[in-house]
Specification:
- This protein is α/β, with parallel strands linked by helices and about 270 residues long.
- Helix content is about 30%, strand content about 15%.
- It has a single domain, classed as Spore Coat Polysaccharide Biosynthesis Protein SpsA, Chain A (Alpha-Beta Complex), CATH 3.90.550.10.
- The longest helix is centred in the last third of the chain and has 20 residues.
- The chain starts with 20 loop residues before the first strand and ends in a 5-residue tail after the last helix.
- The N terminus is likely disordered.
């Protein structure tokens, strides 16, 4: 929990108070400081390449970004690799005692992030989320959006290397959450949100869909879905299993109960 929810989140039915956007933004002065959290467990095969790629994007676009890796005591030494890279790159590692869940890792990472970051975000460790999309997400926040979401389901977005069953699972998960928001990719785990939008928000650490919690509960006037092509992991193993699917349904049920109790009001 970052803070207590005061009920002033995005509209449960339809758009938030102001307009939604889907597309790209022109290049602007990207001065917003941000911290992006990457949860890890046994990601030694790809974490260094990802940190180097992120640093390259930050430098090329004059971004003031911090990388926070939250490692759940990976047996393959992921945490140690990140500690070594911290001497050269803008990355810090928060070490946890074991596998405690992806959403809780992101929430703890946000608490661990530097105080001067005006925005907080999350992305996967396996290159399924394209680092080159981050400048557009930062630009959206600089231009007044409260939330920028990497989206697979808007024009220009897509998915590669997913089996039909995985694609169907994703579509069903989104359909189940459709009454909560007009965001098309509500299950996205790739996003940046203004830190102020999380003040007073009670985030549920259950499961691995922290993006759902933020989209449904954070305090923002407008959001932008930035298209990107999701590429299935190139190293390590997928975290999706039957237990996580069950947790998603539990998480969704809790959000619906909260919204229904409030009469689906902001």
């Amino acid at each position: 929990m970052l803070a207590r929810d005061n009920g002033d989140g995005p509209s449960a039915l339809g758009a938030p108070r102001a307009a939604w956007g889907r597309g790209s933004l022109g290049r602007s002065a990207l001065r917003m400081k941000f911290s992006i959290v990457i949860p890890t467990y046994n990601e030694a095969g790809g974490i260094e390449a990802l940190i180097r790629a992120l640093d390259g994007v930050f430098r090329a676009n004059s971004l003031d970004g911090e990388i926070v890796v939250v490692d759940d005591n990976s047996p393959d030494g992921t945490g140690a690799i990140v500690e070594r890279l911290g001497a050269t790159f803008p990355v810090r590692c928060l070490h946890r005692s074991g596998k405690l869940g992806l959403s809780s890792a992101v929430i703890e990472g946000w608490k661990f992030a530097r105080d001067e970051s005006d925005a907080l975000g999350a992305m996967d460790a396996d290159f399924s989320h394209d680092p080159k999309v981050i400048p557009a997400m930062v630009g959206a926040l600089d231009e007044g959006y409260g939330l920028a979401i990497g989206s697979r389901y808007v024009a220009g977005g897509g998915i590669t290397n997913w089996p039909k069953r995985r694609q169907l699972t994703s579509r069903v998960a989104i359909a189940l959450a459709r009454p909560l928001t007009r965001v098309r990719d509500i299950t996205s785990g790739f996003f940046l949100v203004k830190r102020s939008a999380l003040e007073g928000v009670d985030l549920d650490p259950i499961g691995f869909k922290i993006g759902l919690e933020v989209i449904a509960k954070a305090h923002y006037d407008k959001a932008l879905e930035v298209p990107y092509v999701f590429t299935d992991r190139v190293a390590g193993s997928s975290k999706l299993n039957q237990s996580e699917i069950f947790n998603y349904l539990r998480q969704l049920g809790r959000i619906y109960r909260t919204k229904l109790a409030a009469g689906f009001r902001r």
